[in-house]
Specification:
Radius of gyration of chain A: 17 Å
Oligomer: homodimer
Strand order of the largest sheet of chain A: 3-2-1-4-5
Number of helices of chain A: 6
InterPro entries (chains A, B): Rossmann-like_a/b/a_fold (IPR014729), Universal_stress_UspA (IPR006015), UspA (IPR006016)
CATH superfamily of chain A: HUPs
Distance between the termini of chain A: 32 Å
Chain lengths: 166, 166
Amino acid sequence: MASEVAEKERKILVAVDEGEESSYALSWCLSNIVNENSKDTLVLVYARPPRAVYSTLDGSGYLFSSDILASMEKYSHEVAECVLEKAHRICKDFNAIKVETKVEHGDPRDVICQVAEKLNVDLVVMGSHGYGLIKRAFLGSVSHHCAQNLKCPVLIVKKPKSNDGN
Amino acid sequence: MASEVAEKERKILVAVDEGEESSYALSWCLSNIVNENSKDTLVLVYARPPRAVYSTLDGSGYLFSSDILASMEKYSHEVAECVLEKAHRICKDFNAIKVETKVEHGDPRDVICQVAEKLNVDLVVMGSHGYGLIKRAFLGSVSHHCAQNLKCPVLIVKKPKSNDGN
């Protein structure tokens, strides 16, 4: 039975963000879940802040000038690029794994759950905080929300405090 | 790097109880995490109800007669045996895996966290409810507690409602 496992095509969603914990979760998943001979596909999901946060308040007026909006959008885009580049670098060490990326605007809780459901993934992997420090402050625990709401298995990985190198 | 994975000796704690969900979590773990060539050890952990629940109220008097206590103890022991026997049967389908069992009296939240810490396990696997229907009612979510308090990665597996056979 176990030999069949390697042949199974699984879709594993890994939630990535700016934090060290999500990088650790990704590495842990690659070391412990993904098999060299498997046909697993890793779907790296990054949730960009909802546009509404820095966009129009209503249809008539702008909260920020278009310049500020454009630079905020650019910054958010660069952060997303940076996060995904880092994640790809981590995946590179583990060859023979198919990697896809998804960047969506929105609350990470919704983004992760929606993508997981849409792609019918076999597993969702995330750091215990689920999302970066700043977002966590007003979002609460993303991992708790996902563990409660997702139908598929959820792996919550905590970065060890004592050992930064691993 | 991935080829090294199979050689790594990992200790994986799987929380088992009377519920179908814990059986499903165990099967999922065996199919998706454990590698045929790995030297993984599975530690099946079952938490028996704390003795205090049906034992003395204080040092001086008994709440139940010794007959009732003995039969309750016997029943609790038989349930534990039954749960572990079922878990072992599931593991049997996946040969070449080392299986250990731990039965401890206590709140499953404490039992799981204590055993995980004591044995320094690499991963804890559990159903999303973590423990049986009756206990869940007054214990709250065991999986949530464990995800918050454990230092190691926690895999929470939900049994699909639509597909009992898988």
